[in-house]
Amino acid sequence: MSVLWGVSFDATPLSGVVVEFLKTARRFAGHRVHLDLGYDIKADKGAFFRPYRDEAGLLPGWVTLDRVEGVDGIRGYDREFVDRVLREVVQHGDETLRPEIDRIAGELAGKIVATWERLGVTMVMVENGTLPENLTYTEALYRAIDRYGARHRLGRFVFWRDHDLMWQSEPGIAKYGRFPYPGVPTPRNSPHIHYFALHEQARAKTLEWVPGLRNIDVLPNAFAIAPARVDDRNAGFRRDHGIPGDVPLLARITRIIPQKRIDRDLHLLALLPDAWLFVAGDVAEAPSEHDRLAGLATRLGVRDRVVFGGWLTPYDTAVPGRYSVRDLLAHATVVSFLTSYDYESYGNPVSEAIASGTPYVTSGYELYDVVYGRKGFRAPVLDIRARDLPDAAFAREVSELITDEGKRADVVRANSELGQAHFGTRVVDDLVDRLYPPPMGAGTRLSVVLPVYNEAANLPEVLRTLHDQRDGDAPLDKGRYEVVLVDNNSTDDTVAVARAFAASHPDLALHVIGEAEQGVSCARRAGMDFAAARSRNRPDTDPGERFYLVSADADCRVDPHWLSELCTAMEESKAAIGVCDYYYDASHFTGRPRLWDAIQRTLRCRAVTFSLFGGFPDGKGFAVERDAYERAGGIEIFYQLQDGKFVSHLSDDWDFGIKVASGGDAITYAPRSRVEINPRRVDHAIDEVIAGRAYGSDGIIVMRDIRPSVPAAASDLTEAEARQAWEFSIKDFTPKNTILPVLLTPTLLEDDAVTAFFGADLASRLARRIAEIRDEMRVVDFTPIHAYKTPSYRLYFEFADELFACLRRHVGDDIGFPPPLPPCLAEIPAERFAEFVRYYCEDRESGEAHNYFGNGGVF
């Protein structure tokens, strides 16, 4: 079993740091989880070398409390030494202790590695390790990570998250010195560590401190956004704590220490005569602070309305016999967080309130706006830079929130929607799943990548066809393939549908990841990169075995033998890319013979040329061998301007095929691997299809949403419309499918089958003309996006009559003759025709050539 070792530098059983560790660790299903609370790390908590007592009872049963063995036997390492290092080295820059720090760090590293070896640790989570409470231990941890990771050839097995950093933790007293923190060990680049900051400001400040730091992402604290409700388990919460059932209840869920400023809550309570206050926290952590607060409550006359309730279990955990923070919030009217200005970083109680559907009030602490305020979260905010304690005006604002149910409901609704977007569990799941994906089985040979955007309605049937794949007469072994669904910011139930399908079909590995940058190209790349990286970590695989990344489309169904036939074609040919066959269901076009004829003629042409040249990949269905994918640099994303904004280019599949082919790798056609195209692609864009503008104009390729709000009218084309649709289809088809292959690979013209298709004379003249254009354009290859279009268009015009004669000869007489020339070329003298074709095709100012040929496949 995989083993996850967690270490918290907080030295507290139930801090926000530990709670976030528990949430994240739960995502790594299948790991045995060990947690070191850091008692032997942090000096100011008074727990150095103290044995664990009842702390395990506060944590879920799947967590084993543990610690590094033998630390107390290291000469010179104790609480006093740690405190001295913090004071002398960190705060005052005195380097006298460096030799001793080095010696102890070396011994500590050995102890850490020995503990990990004993347990068989496969993953490490470090919480707050950069904060220099104990730079000796931090240094030891870095050494242990490097040593252990190299010994076991691990990748980035360390998840290093900093909840607090020097500029967030009591900067007023310069507890950790001042920027650039010369005494503090900086985060370092390691092949084994991925760093996480809680928000963009923390990431930016970290990179300001360590400009060359790589592998650092923003990972906000995450919460399941769902109302906390009174249920059978927590119905007695108020009764058990002596709180009347009908009074407004303020909940304070922080440690009882001076920095949390719970005195502000007591002053607020004095201004809210009908309310009660519940303070959840260990009264024994700082006894003098508890005594001070109890005395203040008495002086303010509110002691009988204050409950110091002690420890509650973490927000979303359930420990038998104990209440949780969520149980408190089920009964709370408002959560209060009137904390110190410069002590807090993220402010988890605010997130917990938002997630539970409870309004909150807060102080305007230093990072409140960064984390919540600027995102639009709604709450009364006490401006503690202007006044230290709540006053009557602030109390009135809080009272209105408590008493006005309509306002409270509006606040909850707005905050819940924002919470889902900014720190809902899906936000974190997407990043964690991407960086720390579940392992891939040794027998997996194909990873099917499915980019999706708002496909909840169509997805179940698409997933069913992927699940029901066959190999001959038997089901295809589910251990041979997996599905990677890449959600591209769906706003419907797409992800929920996918997860429900995965839960009901556990025999098929279905992974759901997210891609924040909008665009199918970005989503396809994210999925293929995800699968390629994981495939290299499969256990016990033959080094010579080929692994395939397969593209599918979220609105197209695949035939039962789609994968097996595609894999067979790839294995037999050893090609870098395998291209599928595509078809429409004829029954959908019953009563529309003209439209059906135009579609079928295009697909017949495609079948002939793909059999001859191998074709180019289409996102609806192709496979690429993983090593070839990585040799080509993966799916490359290009950008273009659309309505004054940069958007990702949408023909990544063709452009990727061009990169692969121009690099010398072969493409094979798998005609028995078939994909059914969703007819909505034609039905709901028919006007643009007819006009050749279905995917944009003037060289800008756009993706229009073709999901209908109402069913499309199933009428046939007129004769004129059918002719126009066919002409645009064949104009789009011919340069890309009969010219481009030989333009990229002129040696194809020496192949007997290709020569037979063109005829010896035409093949020879094409070869000469391609060489001339290459020399004239001074182009070494045609890899850059769209660089192939101009020469393809030129060759089309120069050889159109002969190319159409080839198509008539090999596909059928109904292919006909070339569509009319652009009017500007019709009257050009024959001797100057090629010259003016060049001007026409290279006129990037007007985009006329793009409009003549269309901007994407019509059928």
TrEMBL record:
It holds the Pfam family Glycos_transf_1. Transmembrane segments: none annotated. InterPro entries: Glyco_trans_1, Glyco_trans_2-like, Glycosyltransf_2, Nucleotide-diphossugar_trans. The keyword Methyltransferase does not apply. Residues 238-410 form the Glycosyl transferase family domain. The keyword Ribosomal protein does not apply. Residues 447-613 form the Glycosyltransferase 2-like domain. Keywords: Transferase. One of its GO terms (molecular function) is glycosyltransferase activity. Gene3D superfamilies: Glycogen Phosphorylase B, Spore Coat Polysaccharide Biosynthesis Protein SpsA, Chain A. This is Glycosyltransferase. The lineage of its organism: Bacteria, Bacillati, Actinomycetota, Actinomycetes, Pseudonocardiales.
